[in-house]
């Protein structure tokens, strides 16, 4: 696991504890929030179940936390991260993306592979249907190429169809691309995107809030969409099979955002990047 430069031993210990809590079965966002509010990360590994219960936790959660913070389990967790190339950034780190802090219940921990610095760049979301038309995929790829050449990181969910095309287009520019996965960050899903996954891991950034070894289930993907929305200044929706799934107006309102989601018409796109840049500017997207 990589740690930030100049981070004290105490902060490293607290980060490891936060990650352990995040990975503890039965311990959710509210429980961790309660622990943090009561300064419960300090000397957490030394606490007995009764001391955790004094923080308002149930007996079952207290026992689970003590087991999760066992030194041998902590070492196995670090070894697992090292073996798979995973690193973490936590909500208490300065590298944690600022926009994401402002969504409802921001994830305490993000697992990542690749270039963490991409999270500090302005990001635009390009997401959509898995059953995209040829024209739709070409439009997504061309627009994402334009955004990336304009210095924006293109964020998507690495699904088949529009998402995959968006990542491929963004990899051609300097802005780069961020793939937010519903699955753990070290799991290629869907499997047919294996080559794309490898390229993004080498040249871009793969991010997930899902701990390693958690089985894939449908509930992961709405959570992924929340993160895509939280990271992005805006997004491209509709037109040529490009949709804003999970990033619709209602969800943005729930999160209290006033970010602009771009609305260029599908007939504004052309196969040449120069035309795509013109379309991006007309759509009112940030910095385009």
TrEMBL record:
Stretches the record annotates as Disordered: 238-288
Transmembrane annotation, as ranges: none
GO-annotated biological processes: DNA-mediated transformation
Biased composition (Basic and acidic residues): 248-257
Superkingdom of origin organism: Bacteria
Any Pfam family matching the protein: DNA_processg_A
Family matches, as InterPro entries: DprA, DrpA_SLOG
Residue span(s) of domain Smf/DprA SLOG: 88-233
Family membership noted in the UniProt record: Belongs to the DprA/Smf family.
PANTHER family: PROTEIN SMF
Record protein name field: DNA-protecting protein DprA
Organism: Cohnella rhizosphaerae
